[in-house]
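Lecture 7 notes: from sequence to structure.

We start with a single chain of 355 residues. Read the sequence below before looking at the structure.
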Amino acid sequence: MTTPTAEVILPSPDFDATLAFFREALGFRLDAIHPADDPAIASLSGYGLRLRLDRDAEGPPPALRIASAEPATLLGGARAVTAPNGATVTVVQADPPLDLPPLDQKLTICRTDGANGGWGVGRAGMLYRDLIPEREGGRFIASHIRIPDGGPVPDNVHFHRIRFQMIYNYKGWVRLVYEDQGEPFVMGPGDCVLQPPEIRHRVLECSDGLEVIEIGSPAEHMTLLDHDLPLPTGRHLPERDYGGQRFVLHRAEGALWAPADMAGFEARDLGIAQATGGLAEVAVLRQAADDVDTAVRHGGEFLFHFVLEGRLTLTVDGRGPDELAAGDSFTLPADMPCRIGAASGPLEMLRVRIP
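Now the structure, written as tokens:
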């Protein structure tokens, strides 16, 4: 049985010149041409694309984008040209290096009931709440994600071209599977995964009322589907390196608590600093004193807190105090003085720090 094929039709009134351009300048392969005595239609293939040049077809000139590992070898190094049939052809670098936008730190306080605390519908029907609307200049994104109705999740095996990405399970449970990390597993409240760059994964199912906190860098990054890799792979390789990072599954149950670097708190380290070579530090902080009044200041790239439980007052650079409750979050710029106080325990916070 012949496999069905699809072609993109390119109107080509200047047929001979257009055919020569796509073959000689762009390297497309000629697969068919007819009629022999006065060619008017040609089928070509290249770069995962099939084209049909048609001398008599009508329509606007198309636009083509070619991603090449060596773009300088095409079109004499030019990045954009116009073909004889009017088609615009742009050549770009395939798999370019990750682009990190310039950092633009700002104080952001996001409340569950505030003007910037609303929910919007994202992919696969999930609800998203943007915790850093200005994205630190595009360097970071923090999302509070909710799935109200549980069951199977319509997800595919996919991966992300990222620098850093983690998911903290806030409420409910979710079942996932990751490349070379064994069989599917369930992540419950307080559990966390580090998703290293380009690790293939898939969300399988979840409970009603699932809520997770997802932090990523950069804010805009490519998500790609992998149609060829079945998950699970049948392998468990916990030490596998993915772009300089290792996969982490942190379990809250049985995790150790130790004195935190913030007065009045103890910390549950999620193991992400070691797995990322110090790129990111993630911990859950919980109140360890009857009252809290502690200074917070940093000199790094990113410092984010999400209130998991309880209440606190936040005084930043002389502003406030602002009262924050569970579901609220704040992001602090470097070198801006801050105090966390008047906690109404038991206070717990998720802290993500990029030193």
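The mean pLDDT is 93. Keep this in mind for problem set 3.
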